[in-house]
Design goal:
Length: 323
């Protein structure tokens, strides 16, 4: 028997983030440079007994880990972009990589703190000349990585957007800030080693190791906070939420906003679910989307309109307009 059921309309694309090929390529280079320098600094720290140098190596390892996870996330997000299981796109794979990196960084910071405190209580001789040479090379690698990631392969967008809600690559921006933190840690290690060599202040070396541990922990907390907020859809304090309320309030239609859900699904891009109650028959889902069209960060909008009962005892007529 031939079925005459109407064919379902083809679903629209759920690829909301186009990726960042330039950022991915530059990040690969940064990973290779950083991983090589990380191995040299950690080995040099152990061989020449410099806790500051060792701490800088561990700090650089955290940077290599963060960038390595970012590269893998770029590849996974690109490969799975058209997988229908991801109904809101694959951008959060990159965010999940950042969160995972932050959790591991907390462990790295704890290890650095423990080793530095132990060295502070039980000092031992340091081979300053060799350690300083490695520290200077490490600083150079950090500055080179910062140059590679200086613009992050950013794609600049124009139009309606909030100055603080930019469209830059979240992972790469975090990586760039981390490179700057790495450079600062390398500089601290070099200062500590020169202080020990010139003035005999051996305590500066483990002290700078502790400072480096605090910097790693602070960066890890910042990344965990920002990525966790996105993963948990804790976005109702974003400016675009107030923009949605304002646009509906100034629409000229008699309506009540009964529910609003907001989540980020790309760099500076959001999806929202809006539930309204209105007796105004001219207010449709398409009209609501038209009202919100000026806010280009809203790329996936679902609207539900509930009609109140016409009279007492009349069954509620409900119209669902779904995107």
């Amino acid at each position: 028997m031939t079925s005459h059921a109407p064919a379902l309309r083809r679903e629209h694309s759920h690829v909301f983030d186009d990726g960042n090929p330039l950022a991915e390529r530059n990040t690969r280079w940064a990973v290779m440079l950083t991983a090589g320098m990380m191995a040299i600094e950690i080995a040099g720290g152990w061989l020449f007994n410099s806790m500051a140098l060792l701490a800088d190596g561990w700090h650089m390892s955290s940077h290599a880990l963060a960038l390595g996870l970012s590269v893998l996330a770029y590849a996974a997000a690109r490969r799975l972009a058209k997988d229908r299981r991801f109904s809101l796109g694959t951008w959060k794979i990159e965010v999940l990589a950042g969160y995972t990196s932050a959790v591991l960084l907390v462990l790295v910071a704890a290890l650095m703190l423990f080793q530095s405190a132990e060295r502070l209580l039980n000092p031992s001789p340091i081979h300053y000349n060799q350690a300083i040479a490695i520290g200077l090379v490490g600083l150079g690698v950090n500055l080179l990585c910062a140059w590679l990631l200086r613009d992050g392969g950013h794609h600049h967008h124009h139009g309606h957007e909030h100055s603080h809600d930019h469209h830059h690559d979240l992972n790469l921006r975090s990586a760039y800030l981390h490179v700057i933190a790495d450079a600062a840690t390398s500089l601290l290690a070099i200062v500590a080693l020169f202080g020990g060599k010139l003035w005999g202040a051996n305590w500066l070396d483990p002290l700078m190791g502790i400072v480096g541990a605090v910097m790693v922990a602070a960066w890890a907390y910042s990344l965990m906070r920002d990525s966790g907020k996105i993963l948990l859809d804790a976005e109702m304090d974003a400016p675009v939420a107030d923009d949605i309320r304002q646009a509906l309030a100034e629409s000229g239609h008699a309506l009540n906003l009964t529910d609003l859900h907001l989540g980020r699904i790309g760099k500076g891009k959001y999806h929202c679910v809006i539930a309204l109650s209105s007796a105004d028959r001219t207010l449709t889902a398409d009209r609501v989307r038209q009202l919100l069209a000026v806010h280009h960060e809203l790329v996936h909008v679902t609207v539900e309109i509930n009609r109140p009962p016409l009279a007492q005892g009349v069954v509620l007529f409900r119209q669902n307009d779904l995107a």
